[in-house]
Each structure stands twice: as C-alpha cells, then as structure tokens.
Queue: 4 jobs
Job 1
Amino acid sequence: MSGRALIIADVQNDFCEGGSLAVAGGAAVAGRISELLAAEPDRWDHIVASKDYHIDPGAHFGNPPDYVDSWPVHCVASSYGSEFHPALDTDRIEAVFLKGQYAAAYSSFEGSVGSIGLTAWLRMHDVSDIEVVGLTTDHCVVTTALDGVREGFAATVLLDHTAGVLRQTTDAAVDQLRAAGVKLVGAPVTA
C-alpha cells in the first residue's frame, strides 16, 4: 500500500457562516480546499469526504446545548445545512461517508458509504497515507486524524485548510495531534 488520500471533513453549510453551528472562517476554508484541489490535481490518489448527517442523534442535540457534549440542531439529514458548502469543489470526491445518523459522531472514520466504513474503503484502495482538511480543527479534524493513526495510516493535517471553534480547544487539538505523531502543516483559522 502506498496511495495517498485526502479526507475532507464536514465542510457543510451548517458549519459555515450563516449555519446553525457556524465556525468563523468556515466558508474561507471551503474555498481554500477548492484552490488546493485545483493547484495540485495529482497530489492524491483518492479524495473522499465526510458529512454529519443526523436523523435522530439523541442527546447530541441539546435544548439548551452545553457546547461540549450537546449542540444546537445541525446537519439534519437531507437538509440544506447538511449539504456541502457551495465554495467546496466536489467534482473529484469519490465517496461521501455519512456519520452521526443516530448518535454523536465526530471522526470521519465513524462514517460509512453504504455498508463500507472509511477504514475498509481506504484499505480496499491501497491507501497508506491520509491528509485531513475541513471543519473543525478541534472536533472532527482532530478525531479523524487521530483515528487514522490508530488504524495504521500515516496522517497529515493541513492546518491552513481547517478552522477551529475556539483558540483554546484548537491549541489543545494541535497538541494532541503533535503528540500522536501526526504531521502538521500550516496554522488553523480561529476566531
């Protein structure tokens, strides 16, 4: 196995400005990922993405939310908020892994396309190295990269193609990534 895959985590309308759980800089991250795809078309053997895709995620939706374990309603299945942000070029995405239908799910590795999970899909396509971009640095990006390492992939996070919710949690996520041996490139956007 020697292939490289780009994993685009959760670049969805609800996580960008104007969405129900927006992060500052989300739309700009969508645009930067599209620019990267155009500038380096041969960098990856495969490009995949994940989506939060909630049907009934139970306590993940809080009323009121605590913004730690529960959140405002977001990325409801088949809603506008669950769609990819329009600034994200989706033409080269080979598979979209849906996660969180009936429970909280942060890592792209918790998602599946049909009955195939992300780990199995990457192995079926001889991927050994993953690069992770998307939203948010301190939630779905960090968990995706850490799960990738646990699954035996060499992981890189392109931090300048991510945005974090808060400076403190983003800094903590970067420390976690560094400690796990994830290669880090650039710096994340934070409010």
Job 2
Amino acid sequence: MSARILSLHIYPIKSCAGIDLGESPIDRAGLAQDRRWMLIGADGKFMTQRQWPSMALIRTALDAEALRVSAPGMPDLDVALDGSGLEPGAETVDVWSDTISARRESAAAGQWFTDFLKTPCRLLKVDVQAQRTAKPDWVSRWADAHPDLADAFAGSHHFGFADGFPLLVANQASLDDLNARLRAKGEPPVPMDRFRPNIVVEGEWEAYDEDHTAMITVADVRMAFVKPCTRCSIPDIDQRTARQHDEPGRTLAGYRNLDIGVVFGQNAILDAPAGARLKVGDAVEIELDF
C-alpha cells in the first residue's frame, strides 16, 4: 500500500493557530514543540476555542530563540524558548482528567493574552520534569489486541498539553469523503485545519481505513493507532476567521457517531529512535488491522 505524508503541523499553544512544517524532529512525546504551552483562565481551568473561538486568531511562529505570537490589533509577543522568561517554581494544572506540572510565563505574556481575549488568563509551559502519560487503558487495549507489535511501544509515553495522546493522524481521503457529503448538501467544503492534526497522510488509504489500521511506519518511526479521536465543536470554527458554524459537525454526526462519540482521525503513540525526523513527502507504510 503506497502512501506519503501530505503535511505536518504543530500547535505550540494549545487551541491557538498552528504552524505548517516541511519537516520536524519527533520522539515519543510527538512532534517537537507541539502543545508545549497552554492558557489558563481566572478559574484555573485550561482555555480552548470551545469557549473562546477567537483563540484561532492567535498565530504562532518559531525561530531558534523564541515562539513569536501575533494577533489582530496586537504587537508581536516573543516567548523565549530557553525558559528565561519563566517565573520561579512549578504548579500543577489539569488537562481533562490528567494533572501535569507546568511553569508560568512572565506576567507580561499573561497580560498580552488577557488584553486580546478580554478575559484574565495566564500562559503556562510544560515543566521539564512533567510526566503526563498517554491514556493507559487505551494503550493497554491496543497492546492486548496487537501482541506481535506491542513490544516496540512498551514503556511510558509522556507528552504535553494535547488532549490525550502524543500525536493525531488524519487521512486526506476521509476529508475528501466528508467534503463530498458537504457539497451534496449544498455546504462549502472545509480544510483539514478544522481538525488540527499533526500528520496528514494521503495515498492508497481509503476513506476511514484509519479505523482499521493498527500502525503506520515512516522509515524507523512507528505510530500505533490506539484510539479514534472524538470531536468537539472546534471543527465547526473557521480557523481563519474564528466564526462558528454548524458544519462539518452536523454532517459528521450523521455517519461517524460511534459508541465513544463522533470521531475523525486517530490518536497515536510512538516508537521513535533518538534524532528521528519526519518530512513532508516521506513514504508511509500502513499495517491494516484486518
């Protein structure tokens, strides 16, 4: 089965705009710099586009020294990658049912986001000592179902502020199928950025074959598909305008509503050697579950 990486994406600040990449380092925590920062509201809970759609308008860019943040009507904000802007001491924050250690970026950084979103908030970065593990029940279920593959994924899979797993993989053919359904209803097609994947694959992979894929391999990097990605309202938010719509969520709910919810894409854990990199165009080997 012939397939390739169509695109690579990271989202340095959880629920803010992503960065399209030509290539990226990758390890068991996922793509480098993916979801390493997160906004916390005055209530101490993490913030997402579900409640603040305008987070989609917060753009990010990376250079060797800083994460540059921009938004309409705001001066650019540079957040040092070396941690020199972090305040002393770690604190714990919750991401869904997980608790993770994090460090607060400067008060000036927090004020930048407060000013733009017009609500009090703070910017946190994953602490270097943090050890948040991918959902063990789903990982164990996959390992039990694939004993011939499980040894490569033994051990812990620590990652940052993503919802539940180090990596999200999407199938371009599945988006093409969804867009065909939208067009048939007289609705405009949607781009893949509505689903905020890390890796998009295209090739001889039929629509929703990812549901029946045990693992994909790119060179010496292996990715086990341990859980379908359940979708919230964020795919209904236009990532360029922050406007909320009824689609594609309404159409997806009509034919992709499984026992765990409406799903699109696959959450993955990784086996990646030191120094591993992925790049757009890399060949993808697909191991189906049939």
Job 3
Amino acid sequence: MPRSVNSVASRRRRKKILKAAKGYFGRRKNVLTVAKNAVDKAMGYAYVGRKLKKRAYRQLWIARINAGARQNGTTYSRLMHKLSTGKVDLNRKALADLALNHPDAFKAVVNSVK
C-alpha cells in the first residue's frame, strides 16, 4: 500500500507560518525554516511585551498619583497607606485618571483620608 501523507494539513501549517511572517525582510518572509524561527522569536517577544506593557502602565499611574499627591501636600506612599487603612477601594488606574483629568475630585479623595 502506498504511503499517504496529509498534504492538506501540512500545507495549512506552512501557510499559517508564512502568513505570520508576512512583511519580514529577506528570506524570513518566504523560506519556511527561516520564517519559522523568525515567527517563534517574534511570538516570544510579543509575549514578553504584553507583560512589560502592564509594568509600564503601572509605573505611569504611580508617577501621576505621586505628582497629584505632592500638589496636595502628601506623598504617594502616605496617600496609598491612608487609602488602604481608610478602606477606600480605588485602584491606581482610577486614581491616576482623577489626578490627571479631575484634580478637584482627586483633592477631595486626598482630603477624605487625611
């Protein structure tokens, strides 16, 4: 009996990799083995990048909260401690938005825990 290979599935696998490598430079876009390595590396970078993005946003929020807190006569660490002991459930993203776009509301939050 002749050997049967599932060419439909293997072609689909190859096309998936080459489609992901679209726009790459040189052989990375059209040679399967090179494209596979490039796509694997790119997917690794994308995974790490998603984690770094969360870290960068948290740093930005903390910087904005600290700037707003210092304008209202306290520091970031003191404000966050008073918010946690005062049972105020506002996350850093919301506090940073208040500090940047609604300084009066942020001042009210700071004064409520002083």
Job 4
Amino acid sequence: MGLKDSWVSVKENMLFLSKEQVLNLFTKFEIIDFQETEKDGKTGLGKIKHWHIFDIIAKKK
C-alpha cells in the first residue's frame, strides 16, 4: 500500500511504500502494467477508509 493510505498511521505491522520504492522492487523486471489508485472505499469489514494501492503486472527480464 502507498504512503497516502489511511492505515499508514494506525497499522504499525504493515508496510507502506512510495511509488519510487515500489518501482525499485522491480528493477530486474519488465513492467507490463503499473497502476496507482487512490480512492475511498470499504474494508472487508465494511468500514470506510482511504485506499492507496499499487497494481503491477511484471515479467522477469
């Protein structure tokens, strides 16, 4: 999840990364699709939160 996610200040056991940090994880990959999404929505428990997520499709070089 990204740094703008609403859980960043309350979930200390989760990892939150910047876009640059996420891209650095894929230096040995060809990125086929990269999408960054920010939106308000529900959790699995039905609570509202701000989501900041990255969806990546990549192929090893």
